[in-house]
Recover the amino acids of this structure.
């Protein structure tokens, strides 16, 4: 069974303390053995012309979601670094809606962690994007 | 609801007829609305020194699994072409076991189809590899 | 020989007109048959704690560089959409330096364009990141 | 300046000794500071219906080319393992021609090596595929 080292609340507090400038963009909706759900509270600064969420904002959402999903498993001590992200943009996000990222950790190794993320417009069943991500975990 | 155009049996027959040389490597275990499960019947020609399944054999399994998952949805008329595959190798496959690929279609558009695949050693709960794949669907 | 439809100046004007909010981040340094060089004028909003450029900012740089490299080839009429990006983060950017992205178009097809990007801290010979990107080109 | 630990001949002998079953598929054409060129000697077993080289054969070519490019730099002692490959298939290979892979190492770190590969049909200027690959380098 997967034991978590940090709750959703603790992850949110970690974000606020260590990532002050982006923490207000994100809300940790859920963290459990199945993975983590992170909300992007969509604001004007995330939008491209036309009103849809920009690629970099979706990339950032996937990246932070997986980062927190790993921290939930290993605790706040280590500083994991993104080494690879392969992201597919599949549909246009629905205008005026928040995005929800569902992240799951598929491997938590000694030096690498691997997982994937599905991103949805809130209330929609079809994902707008998917990503696979790898993190390097520094030695203690 | 997802309606399938081809059953697991029809997909297996399609493989045998159109991909004679590799068809004997693969068994379609399941095809339904949730996706497709494809077995790689591991033989000596799939192994690397040391006895584990080679990277190209796992890549081929992911590729054929997604290809069949798309055909199950659009029927055998179209000739989809792989345009991108991003694959993560996470664990060593268990020696002497078949591999099972679980493929799901995340987007089926007019010109592109996108999906992902998890590969397991039979009987194991932790995936050995994951892949995201994109196919180009030619105009009719 | 590759004929360009837009010069570096025209691409810069296009950015300013159609991407007002991010245009000031970027300077088109060069556009020719070999590809395109785009500068990220690094500012506080691009930084993570510790002072290095954030992953989303590097993703955005790669994405805009490839977008402009494609437009240079097909002209400003079409609206290309990013469908996939696989990015490797290899080194920490040098603090206090701009980033330069070297983008090249490897395929310009009827419906898909594919290229890759190397990102450097200005003045350094070793890349901080590399990316492969695919764009969908809508029918005229 | 990049110093190589192994010449093209030594890499070829390494292949023959440690990868007996696939060694006859490949010829190391060149290994120098700029990278490595590996030839896939195309045979019937590499072809898909229609006579073009299969995706798994191209994946295998990219994978072995990068593996050898890394060994050329670190010597034959270490056993590098592929952790990620993102490959774009861009054009159909020319029937009846060998494929040539041009691999370059972009990062050679303590635990990870990253590089990319372009694959060409011999005699053609436009690549048929490109790949970015990451290898994990085990501790000594």
């Amino acid at each position: 069974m997967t034991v978590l080292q940090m709750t959703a609340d603790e992850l949110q507090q970690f974000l606020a303390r260590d990532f002050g400038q982006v923490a207000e963009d994100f809300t940790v909706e859920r963290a459990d053995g199945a993975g983590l759900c992170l909300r992007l509270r969509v604001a004007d600064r995330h939008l491209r012309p036309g009103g849809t969420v920009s690629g970099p904002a979706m990339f950032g959402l996937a990246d932070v979601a997986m980062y927190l999903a790993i921290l939930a498993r290993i605790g706040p001590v280590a500083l994991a670094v993104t080494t690879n992200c392969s992201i597919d943009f599949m549909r246009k996000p629905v205008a005026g809606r928040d995005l929800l990222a569902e992240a799951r950790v598929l491997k938590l190794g000694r030096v690498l962690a691997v997982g994937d993320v599905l991103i949805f417009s809130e209330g929609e069943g079809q994902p707008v994007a998917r990503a696979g991500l790898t993190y390097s975990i520094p030695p203690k």
Notes: The mean pLDDT of chain D is 93. Chain D touches chain A through eight residues (CB under 8 Å).
